[in-house]
Specification:
This protein has a 7-stranded mixed sheet, with helices on both faces. The chain has helices spanning 2-8, 15-28, 30-37, 57-65, 78-87, 89-93, 129-139, 163-169, 176-185, and strands at 47-51, 70-75, 97-101, 114-120, 140-150, 189-195, 202-207. The protein contains 9 helices and 7 strands, in the order H-H-H-E-H-E-H-H-E-E-H-E-H-H-E-E. It has one domain (2-207): Vaccinia Virus protein VP39 (Rossmann fold, 3-Layer(aba) Sandwich), CATH 3.40.50. A hairpin with a 6-residue loop joins strand 6 and strand 7.
Length: 209
């Protein structure tokens, strides 16, 4: 029962179980996120956007990697925004972090605003994946990079590993090939993918030329 209630709040956390889910995401994605962030060399001046920022821990970890840059986090869950602001309170006060209620489908930023856009374990929930990737492409600077991070990759060895989660949450996991294809369709180049042995983790990076 508890597990099912948590899964029901994976897409858009709200209420008591939403709070539990946010805490679970911060803890459960910690190692995955650290592994993925190591694939990007964050310059001190970078402006970074984290899409689907959840409880805000990824935002705070990126903020640690930049100096005089700025990190933005967006989420369409009001509860996530509340928790993310609390997580990043000090950096918000010194204008190093800004948290915004928004959807990936309509990013409230001007063209060519960011050096890097990250999305950790959120791609599954996007309503129109190709157009949402194009929206991220729009807000990236020239030579800016997108980084998509997945825990639940569909692999030939274990195609049904995440089926119970898919059925309960109403999502579809993706293959490495599907991610590469979607990034290319959205206009990204120099696409690279990284996997961690013994897991179904994937970090996919594309460049806006």
């Amino acid at each position: 029962m508890k597990y099912h209630k948590l899964l029901e709040n994976a897409k858009k956390p709200k209420g008591f179980w939403g709070k539990k889910m946010i805490s679970s995401m911060n803890e459960g994605h910690y190692e995955l996120t650290g592994w993925a962030l190591d694939h990007i060399n964050f310059e001190r001046h970078y402006r970074v956007l984290d899409v689907g920022c959840g409880g805000g821990l990824t935002v705070s970890r990126i903020a640690e990697r930049i100096g005089n840059g700025k990190v933005y986090g967006i989420d369409y869950s009001a509860l996530c925004i509340k928790h993310s602001k609390a997580q990043n309170r000090k950096n918000i006060l010194c204008n190093k972090v800004k948290i915004v209620l928004a959807s990936v489908s309509s990013l409230p930023f001007e063209d060519c605003s960011f050096d890097v856009v990250t999305a950790v374990e959120t791609y599954y929930f996007w309503p129109d994946k190709l157009n949402d990737l194009k929206e991220i492409y729009r807000v990236l600077k020239q030579n800016g990079r997108i980084m998509l991070v997945f825990e639940m990759l569909k692999t030939p060895e274990e195609p049904d590993k995440w089926k119970a989660v898919e059925d309960k949450v109403g999502i579809k996991t993706v293959t490495e090939e599907e991610i590469r294809e979607m990034l290319a369709k959205a206009g990204f180049e120099d696409i690279e993918t990284h996997k961690k042995d013994g897991t179904t983790w994937l970090c996919a990076i594309g460049v806006k030329k």
